[in-house]
Amino acid sequence: MERYHLTRSFNSEGYDLSVTEVDIPDPSLVPVLTELDLLSYSEPTFSRYTIGGIMRFGRIYLIKADDLVIGACHTFRSFDDPEAVVIFNMALRPGWRGHGLGSRLLQGVLLKLDARKVKRVALAVANNNHRAISVYRTKFGFKSVDLLQNEFNNGQAYHLMQLDLAEWLGKN
Ligand SMILES: CC(C)(COP(=O)(O)OP(=O)(O)OC[C@H]1O[C@@H](n2cnc3c(N)ncnc32)[C@H](O)[C@@H]1OP(=O)(O)O)[C@@H](O)C(=O)NCCC(=O)NCCS
User: Fold this and answer.
1) What stretches of the chain show up as alpha helix (H) in DSSP?
2) Residue range 63-85: average pLDDT?
3) Which terminus of the chain is more exposed, N or C, with fewer CB under 10 A?
4) Of 95, 79, 75, nearest to 87 (Cα)?
5) 101 alpha carbon – ligand 1 mean position (Å)
6) pLDDT above 70 for 78
């Protein structure tokens, strides 16, 4: 466990930070993760059914400061490539963004996926989401493999990105 101090901390004691995998479905997390989603996007990406479904059939990873869930990453295995996992969504509660914690969450997720023998990680990120792109591309080395012009039928282009876990681990 690592002790974390927010730069503009209102808690001089700091927080115990942890990244954990939700391995047993926990219904009490559904409203927590629904709220996190509503705080993060202009339109909801999840209903309680998608969260429940991903919790049971995919994997959800949480980043906590003490006992507070401050962010989450939702993943599932790829049909096209059984050695690949797709990050469906990753978000932090707004006040916690921009302090390196999204990177800390992603690092924890990638290490846990590697421990599960996952080889590749894929995701789609809006091409105007510069902060998220900076995390994926600059900090972790995800490569853009395609530009999805209107795949979600919302007029927004998305980078399809991939990371080779062995390559990433070799650099860290
Ligand atoms: C995306 C998200 C998880 C990243 O977590 P975070 O804690 O804010 O990110 P970090 O602080 O770890 O890293 C952000 C990096 O982006 C950089 N950055 C911030 N704004 C940027 C911009 N407009 N252009 C380019 N880079 C930018 C920062 O400088 C930082 O890099 P540095 O540490 O080298 O300085 C978080 O911001 C979030 O929840 N956003 C809303 C939900 C979302 O968009 N999720 C992604 C969907 S795929």
Assistant:
1) 29-40, 48-57, 101-115, 130-133, 165-170
2) 96
3) N
4) 75
5) 9
6) yes
CA distance linking residue 142 with residue 119, whole number of Å: 13
Rounded to the nearest whole angstrom, what is the distance from the C-alpha of residue 51 to the centroid of ligand 1? 23
Closest-lying ligand 1 atom to the alpha carbon of residue 97: 8
Q: Domains of the chain (ranges plus CATH)? A: 2-170 (3.40.630.30)
Tokens 């901390």: give the residue. 9
Using CA positions, which residue lies closest to atom 17 of ligand 1? 131
Pocket around ligand 1 at a 6 A CB cut-off: 40, 90-92, 97-103, 125, 129-132, 134-135
Cα of 105 from ligand 1 centre, angstroms: 12
Which of 17, 19, 131, 154 to mutate for ligand 1's pocket (most ligand atoms within 8 Å of CB)? 131
- Give the model confidence (pLDDT) of 119-140 as tens digits: 999 999 999 999 999 999 999 9
Longest CA pairwise span in the chain (Å): 48
Give residue 7's pLDDT.
57
Answer whether residue 10 shows pLDDT above 70.
Answer: no
Span from the CA of 135 to the centroid of ligand 1 (angstroms): 6
In three-state secondary structure terms, 19 is: strand
